[in-house]
Design brief:
Length: about 450
């Protein structure tokens, strides 16, 4: 099947759909009172996932869209960890005891901005307040430029069993353009340190669409990444949003590949990783056939694609987002504001959105499309009853997507062909009832 998309279609702003509604729909209508009540209402047998945001880095990468700040002294980190502990105590109290946790994830920023002692202490406090299930995945994101043997050993002693290693691109020209100088030798040394610490599952994060990135440079980066034998690779599309992210203005627009060049970069990465024996997962993840992500089932949340089976996700720290049955709740983004709110109420929720039943139905459809590339009318009806019929006009109105090769009709709905997987966000957007009001807040579709 030939995919035929106009430049306008490729350039159209489209959410990444790590949630639905997306974070741009969050408002101050949801605050600490609402999130606290939602947490307290969780059933006693609910399986929980915990996310901890560490908003500190050793240097500022100009491409980065994460909530982080550069610190060079230990004081801000120590004070932040005190607030984190207070927040965890408040949540544990609202939950009424040590609830079962089936998944842990630390992100940032760079969690390895913590000292070895802080890493072990934070993990121990989590296990003291929550009942972490045996065999639960404990994943941590790291920046190899600020790793050492002591930190790797601390992660191993803390029970971390999966690490995501930020790379983006190994080309010196690309690295200079994004202010991230990271040699292959440094990265390989960190991989060795982590494996020696007993952390067997390693992910590598790459980015396409970066300034001065060419097919030849990305091809070389892919070979170097494969030489490290990662269990998973993520190949994200760079989201250039200088109107929202001030430091991205340091990247001149003219240094970025155009939409067609971005597409070729994405296709190059996909072809090489499939050739290397990895299984494609949804939009932009790849896993070894024996990795849990390849075996499924697959879910999607703010950390991307995951095997996390939890009933609710509770986020701790500045900017962290909780996903609860009633809706989404996000903490204050600025560290000072976060700490002030924790000191005042024990919770730091600044905004969020309560879910309607229509939101839940559309969220389910979008997640299954992002993960399985499939829309099943029977599945939606089984879950949501007659309300599923409201989606029928949307599905019937997808003749243009069918003509472009983005969907193939089935007896029960439609499927996104494997070769159209890079464009699945375009298909998901048809089910997004909120999108029209926020088109200027998202990156291009590919």
């Amino acid at each position: 099947m030939v995919i035929q998309l106009s430049p306008e279609r490729l350039a159209a702003p489209t959410p990444r759909y790590t949630s639905y509604p997306t974070a741009v729909q969050f408002t101050e209508a949801v605050g600490a009172t609402e999130s606290g009540d939602w947490i307290a209402a969780l059933p006693g047998d609910a399986d929980l996932s915990l996310y901890v945001h560490i908003p500190f880095c050793g240097a500022l990468c100009w491409y980065c869209g994460c909530s982080t700040t550069v610190v060079n002294t230990p004081g801000p980190i120590a004070g932040y960890l005190d607030a984190l502990e207070a927040e965890m105590l408040t949540v544990a109290d609202r939950l009424g005891g040590r609830r079962r946790v089936v998944h842990l994830h630390w992100g940032g920023g760079s969690p390895n901005s913590l000292s070895p002692e802080q890493i072990e202490d934070l993990a121990a406090r989590q296990r003291l307040l929550f009942d972490v299930a045996e065999g639960a995945e404990f994943a941590v994101e790291i920046d190899p430029r600020f790793m050492d043997t002591a930190r790797a050993a601390a992660l191993g002693r803390a029970g971390v069993n999966r690490v995501s290693i930020g790379v983006q691109d190994f080309s010196p020209e690309v690295q200079a353009a994004i202010n991230r100088h990271q040699s292959f030798a440094t990265t390989r040394q960190v991989v060795d340190q982590l494996r020696q610490a007993g952390i067997g599952a390693l992910n590598i994060d790459l980015v396409y669409g970066l300034p001065h990135q060419t097919e030849a440079r990305l091809a070389e980066t892919l070979e170097q990444a494969l030489a490290l034998s990662p269990d998973r690779l993520a190949v994200f599309g760079y989201a250039h949003l200088p109107q929202r992210i001030r430091h991205q203005r340091l990247i001149p627009d003219e240094t970025l590949p155009g939409h067609e060049a971005r597409l070729r970069l994405a296709e190059l990465a996909t072809a090489r990783l499939l050739e290397a024996g990895y299984v494609r997962i949804g939009l932009d993840h790849f896993a070894r056939p024996d990795d849990p992500l390849a075996r499924g089932p697959v879910h999607r949340n703010f950390q991307g694609y995951t095997t996390d089976p939890s009933d609710a996700l509770i986020g701790f720290g500045a900017s962290a987002i909780s996903r609860l049955p009633q809706g989404y709740a996000q903490n204050a983004t600025a560290v000072a504001d976060y700490r002030r709110r924790i000191a005042t109420t024990g919770l730091a929720t600044a905004r969020g959105v309560a879910l309607s039943e229509d939101d839940r139905m559309r969220a389910h459809v979008i997640e299954r499309l992002m993960c399985d590339l499939t829309y099943s009318a029977a599945d939606v009806r089984d879950r949501f009853g007659p309300a599923a019929d409201r989606l029928l006009p949307i599905v019937r109105g997808m003749d243009d997507l069918e003509a472009e090769g983005l969907i193939v009709r089935t007896a029960d709905g439609f499927q996104v062909p494997e070769e159209a997987a890079p464009y699945v966000r375009i298909v998901c957007a048809r089910f997004d009832a909120w999108l029209a009001a926020t088109t200027g807040r998202h990156a291009p579709a590919v």
